[in-house]
């Protein structure tokens, strides 16, 4: 977004607890009390004030009838038009999210062919694969929010507060820094909703989803004109939902509140986001693991759920992020980000159920868990546009600091047995909750980054280069005494080089070399000769080239890439050194298309061909095998069509395909390929002059039973069964 199009509030608002701040804001917004404008003499002026539209989608330009946008965040480099970005990027706008009736971030990014969700939609969290590498696996979120790590809700993001989802594919250490979980396949950035001044917005949406989930959502936005052409914007989103899910014996309750405050003056802009999110799920679905020698059986009925009805998951997330910008000069902007988040989880449920034989019998370890996670982030920097002769420079400099702390405890119950085809109900286990939690880990990531984009011949040639210095301090603690178990204090420098050539107006040829970082291991294997040693950060390396074409109402990107990612292992068994001994190499081709080639027709889709090989492995029989969780072919195709004889009625369809995936490194266990088809329709009308939109969608319309994804630690998730979604949205 253009820096001059943002705005926000006094920083003192952060002193309020998030629920209190939300309550105060909702009262103010609903009251409809506007701040009167004043004339140049200071007298009140009751005349109507017309304000330029500043919502994110309007500012950044839309394509494909509003389903995608021309520009995306690139971290350190700021906002860039897709044709001026030397990476493969995609984004999904608020219109796309609303029309898909997506409730979670995972349901949004699943429409990108380079991204796959490896977790179950009925589970505890969303985890992903991008370009064949895992992301968001664990108790620290790898999702960026407004370009910043450490702020987004920790386990699952709801779409109530999301304006846009941006996906940058490939390693991104220079652009975003080291991610909390050391992911290297790409970055998912959730952009929060901002106040819109196209007009006051008061939208109430009622949704129903099978089996019986009913959700009410309010989206309210106001912008007020202050003195001296300053603007104050307020946007509130609230959600309450409850009911049975499509998984047998499971129900879910959601309570979400978010507040976006914007302030804008001539040279200063600020945005403040506050989010509170409570999720409660009874009998959440769980992923499966498979005993050695067991062939992965056929997937059970999609509605089957072996989780016990007395099991539960309760999570409470709170997030805050303050972003400010100040124009030091017409071509120099100073920016800061300050924020953090907390997550509290209580869970009584099975651990990962183990399938013990080919008949689908399952053994599950039941535990009562408590987790707490706290994260903080601070970044500040400068962006400047300068010229040296005929060459333009877009300079960026940033220093950043991130810190997280994790604590947990659990009490073990009794093992229970069941079957994936015929789930067995077991008596409720009265397992006491842990009396307290113990500090498990603490990590601090700090760094300095510099980059410059040089433009030649009116940007027909653009060259971007940069470096990031990254410091990693990571401590692990033993429970329950809290004593230091291991510590990691290392640093690394990662470069990036990108080139764009525009031989014609609507064509961009691009290439890049960029690196990703993963935390080096603290050798904790007592069999290693270097036990206790701290390894340097692992460096992943990407080479990518591609072409982008903006023509015939569509934007298409064709890219080829290679990413190598090392990891540590015992080099030659017990008594040898634990070193950088394993390597995974992913080579791929991607084609992404989004656009509206005809007035009434909108297309989204893509394919990815991937060769993911374990090029180095100390595991016997693994070297040369396909990496777990990856498929050779992934594809998505989506179409929307406005009926010519009833222009307010739109039909849509989506097809998702995923190839065969191996479960283990030696490729003796696998899940088959799968394809799902979704159908939907929406109808726009007016009821008593109020714009109203009806939506209906059927996901997995043919009710395919399938295993949907594999994680990097070889667990397998069950695919979502046929699901009916209905909603009505009314603008007042």
TrEMBL record:
Cellular component terms (Gene Ontology): cell outer membrane
Keywords of the record: Cell outer membrane, Ion transport, Iron, Iron transport, Membrane, Receptor, Signal, TonB box, Transmembrane, Transmembrane beta strand, Transport
An annotated GO BP: siderophore transport
GO molecular function: siderophore uptake transmembrane transporter activity; signaling receptor activity
Leader sequence residues: 1-39
Subcellular locations according to the entry: Cell outer membrane
Membrane topology per record: Multi-pass membrane protein
CDD domains recorded: ligand_gated_channel
Motif (TonB C-terminal box): 715-732
InterPro entries named among the record's database cross-references: Beta-barrel_TonB, Beta-barrel_TonB_sf, Plug_dom, Plug_dom_sf, TonB-dep_rcpt-like, TonB_rcpt_CS, TonB_sidphr_rcpt
Database matches in PROSITE patterns: TONB_DEPENDENT_REC_2, TONB_DEPENDENT_REC_3
Start and end residues of each TonB-dependent receptor plug domain: 82-177
Protein's UniProt keywords contain Membrane: yes
Stretches assigned to the TonB-dependent receptor-like beta-barrel domain: 286-700
Gene3D superfamilies the record matches: TonB-dependent receptor, beta-barrel domain, TonB-dependent receptor, plug domain
Pfam family, one: TonB_dep_Rec_b-barrel
Keyword Metal-binding: no
Membership in a protein family: Belongs to the TonB-dependent receptor family.
NCBIfam families reported for this sequence: TonB-siderophor (TIGR01783)
Protein known as: TonB-dependent siderophore receptor
Organism: Pectobacterium brasiliense
């Amino acid at each position: 977004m253009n820096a001059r199009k943002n705005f926000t509030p006094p920083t003192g608002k952060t002193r309020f607890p998030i629920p209190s701040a939300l309550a105060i804001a909702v009262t103010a917004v609903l009251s409809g009390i506007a701040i009167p404008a004043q004339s140049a003499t200071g007298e009140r002026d009751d005349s109507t004030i017309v304000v330029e539209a500043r919502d994110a989608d309007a500012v950044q330009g839309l394509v494909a009838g509003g389903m995608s946008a021309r520009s995306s965040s690139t971290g350190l480099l700021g906002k860039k038009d897709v044709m001026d970005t030397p990476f493969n990027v995609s984004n999904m706008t608020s219109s796309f999210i609303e029309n898909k009736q997506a409730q979670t971030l995972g349901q949004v990014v699943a429409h990108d062919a380079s991204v796959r969700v490896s977790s179950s939609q009925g589970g505890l969290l969303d985890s992903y694969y991008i370009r064949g590498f895992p992301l968001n696996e664990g108790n620290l979120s790898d999702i960026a929010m407004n370009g910043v790590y450490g702020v987004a809700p920790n386990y699952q993001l709801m779409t109530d507060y999301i304006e846009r989802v941006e996906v940058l594919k490939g390693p991104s250490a220079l652009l975003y820094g080291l991610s909390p979980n050391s992911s290297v396949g790409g970055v998912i950035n959730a952009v929060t909703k901002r106040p819109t001044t196209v007009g006051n917005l008061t939208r109430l949406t009622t949704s129903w989803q099978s089996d019986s989930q009913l959700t009410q959502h309010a989206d309210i936005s106001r912008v007020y004109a202050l003195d001296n052409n300053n603007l104050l914007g307020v946007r509130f989103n609230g959600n309450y939902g409850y009911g049975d899910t499509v998984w047998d014996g499971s129900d879910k309750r959601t309570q979400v509140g978010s507040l976006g405050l914007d302030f804008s003056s001539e040279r200063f802009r600020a945005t403040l986001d506050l989010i509170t999110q409570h999720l409660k799920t009874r009998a959440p679905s769980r992923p499966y693991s498979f005993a050695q020698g067991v062939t992965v059986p056929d997937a059970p009925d999609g509605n089957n759920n072996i989780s016990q009805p007395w099991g539960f998951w309760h999570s409470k997330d709170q997030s805050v992020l303050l972003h400010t910008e100040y124009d030091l000069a017409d071509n120099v902007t100073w920016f800061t980000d300050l924020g953090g988040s907390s997550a509290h989880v209580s869970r009584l449920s099975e651990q990962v159920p183990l399938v013990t034989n080919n008949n689908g019998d399952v053994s599950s370890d039941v535990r009562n868990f408590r987790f707490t996670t706290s994260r903080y982030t601070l970044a500040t920097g400068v962006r400047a546009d300068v010229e040296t002769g005929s060459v333009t420079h877009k300079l960026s400099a940033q220093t950043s600091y991130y810190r997280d702390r994790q604590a947990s405890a659990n009490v073990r119950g009794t093992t229970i047995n069941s079957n994936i085809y015929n789930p067995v109900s077991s008596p409720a286990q009265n397992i006491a909750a842990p009396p307290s939690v113990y500090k498990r880990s603490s990590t601090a990531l700090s760094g300095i980054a510099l980059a410059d984009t040089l433009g030649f011949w009116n940007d027909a040639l653009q060259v971007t280069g940069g470096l990031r210095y990254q410091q990693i301090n990571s401590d692990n603690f033993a429970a329950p005494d809290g004593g230091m178990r291991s510590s990691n204090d290392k640093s690394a420098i990662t470069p990036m080089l990108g080139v764009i050539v525009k031989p014609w107006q609507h064509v961009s040829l691009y290439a890049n070399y960029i690196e990703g970082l993963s935390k080096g291991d603290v050798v904790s294997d007592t069999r290693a000769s270097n036990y206790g040693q701290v390894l340097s950060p692992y460096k992943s390396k990407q080479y990518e080239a591609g072409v982008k074409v903006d023509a015939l109402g569509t934007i298409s990107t064709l890219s080829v890439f290679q990413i190598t990612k090392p990891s540590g292992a015992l080099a030659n068994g017990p008594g040898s050194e634990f070193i950088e001994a394993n390597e995974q190499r992913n080579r791929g081709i991607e084609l992404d298309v989004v656009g509206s080639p005809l007035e009434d027709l909108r297309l989204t889709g893509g394919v990815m061909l991937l060769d993911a090989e374990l090029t180095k492995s100390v595991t016997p029989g693994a070297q040369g095998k396909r990496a777990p969780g990856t498929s050779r072919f992934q594809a998505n195709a989506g179409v929307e069509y406005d009926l010519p004889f009833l222009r307010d009625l739109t039909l849509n369809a989506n097809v998702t395909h995923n190839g065969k995936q191996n479960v283990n490194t030696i490729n003796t266990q696998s899940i088959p390929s799968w394809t799902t088809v979704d159908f939907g329709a929406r109808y726009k009308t007016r009821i008593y002059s109020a714009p109203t939109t009806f939506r209906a969608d059927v996901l997995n319309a043919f009710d395919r039973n399938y295993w949907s994804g594999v994680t990097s630690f070889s667990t397998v998730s069950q695919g979502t069964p046929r699901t009916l979604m209905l909603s009505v949205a009314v603008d007042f």
